[in-house]
Design brief:
globular; single chain; mainly alpha; 15 helices; 360 residues
């Protein structure tokens, strides 16, 4: 009995329970969006598999799981898979009976790889050697993913940029880089615009003036805002959202999952979910501040950055603060690859929390 209790010593129950709250919210949301159909049953299966993954990672030693051989070997395999998908002009890897989205797994590998690089050079700070190591291993993932999925490629770049900030990128370089990016966009704007695919240009045009394209490219934004607004304070009730039931909401299982939730549970329910996300991110950062071992600390920073950017981009698009992007909302959006990656990330954080006061 003492041995069994020892397994749970130090684990962050606040992270575990807020994750379970978001999983339950995701189950309810998908039950409503699909009316209990096939997609809902498949999502339940993914949540079950993700739960096994979370518990397995939580009770294993993350330092043994993430040995350099495992991480770099997995990275090499992932690069080959992504290159194959680029040649095939697809973002999905079709396997017998199911499909996976390797770009989702690229986020977790990027976090693990960056954490390994930074923990091995913690005393050096962000010098040119560290910067080049991060860039050499990160940018191939960004480029290969962006070749078939610009939204996920942007997500990977934001995680990479977050690690540069964590490693100590000077503020003056951040400001100079931002000014350079703005200047480059103004000069090369027309050329870059011509490189975008039609649906990507449509998203930007719809964001700038959705009413002008209300029947086509602006339809998604307008319907998302209508769904969020019609929820009011308390919402219309579980499975009672008109926009969802009458199929006015496109991509309601994935990109607009939060709009389904906001319509049915209202401002109170939407606020509760947003607070749950930020409480989860805060608790992960709190573990990062407590852990003595550098690999665990950088892993926590990376996982927190991943969740922050996913929540910010997805909900920002639905509220018309940003262009709508195909970035899933953690736990609420449909997607097996997303569920497995998020559950594995939480499992790693829980493993780190169990060993936060040890150093070896």
């Amino acid at each position: 009995m003492a041995f069994e209790l020892k397994k749970f010593a130090g684990i962050s129950w606040s992270i575990f329970f807020v994750t379970m709250f978001l999983v339950v919210a995701g189950v309810l949301n998908q039950a409503s969006a699909s009316m209990g159909g096939l997609l809902f049953k498949k999502q339940l299966l993914w949540f079950a598999l993700g739960g096994v993954l979370l518990l397995s990672f939580a009770f294993l030693d993350y330092q043994k799981i993430l040995s350099p051989k495992v991480v770099f070997g997995g990275y090499a395999l992932l690069v080959l898979v992504l290159a194959f998908l680029v040649v095939k002009h697809t973002r999905w890897l079709r396997l017998p009976g199911f499909s996976i989205q390797p770009s989702e797994f690229a986020k977790l590998f990027l976090i693990c790889l960056s954490a390994l690089i930074l923990c091995r050079s913690e005393d050096e700070g962000l010098n040119w050697k560290v910067f080049l190591n991060l860039s050499v291993f990160t940018l191939p993932l960004v480029i290969l993913v962006a070749a078939t999925d610009l939204d996920q490629g942007g997500m990977l770049f934001l995680i990479y940029f977050s690690f540069l900030i964590i490693a100590g990128l000077p503020r003056r370089l951040v400001i100079a880089g931002a000014l350079l990016a703005v200047g480059g966009a103004l000069i090369l704007g027309p050329y870059l615009w011509s490189l975008l695919k039609p649906y990507q240009r449509a998203r930007v045009e719809a964001f700038l003036n959705p009413e002008a394209f209300a029947l086509d490219r602006g339809y998604q934004i307008i319907q998302a805002l209508i769904a969020v607004g019609s929820g009011g304070l308390k919402g219309l009730g579980f499975k009672e959202g008109l926009s969802s039931r009458l199929n006015y909401l496109p991509e309601k299982h994935t990109d607009l999952a939060f709009a389904v939730w906001a319509e049915e549970w209202g401002f109170i329910g939407a606020s509760l979910v947003i607070l749950a996300y930020f409480f989860l991110i805060y608790q992960i950062l709190r573990i990062a501040a407590q852990v003595r071992e550098p690999l665990g600390r950088y892993l926590c920073y990376g996982v927190a950055a991943m969740f922050f950017w996913e929540v910010f981009i997805n909900i920002g698009g639905i509220l018309h603060l940003l262009p709508v992007a195909s970035v899933p909302l953690p736990f609420l959006s449909y997607g097996g690859s997303s569920v497995l990656v998020n559950m594995a990330a939480i499992g790693l954080v829980l493993s780190i929390s169990r060993r936060r006061y040890s150093f070896r």
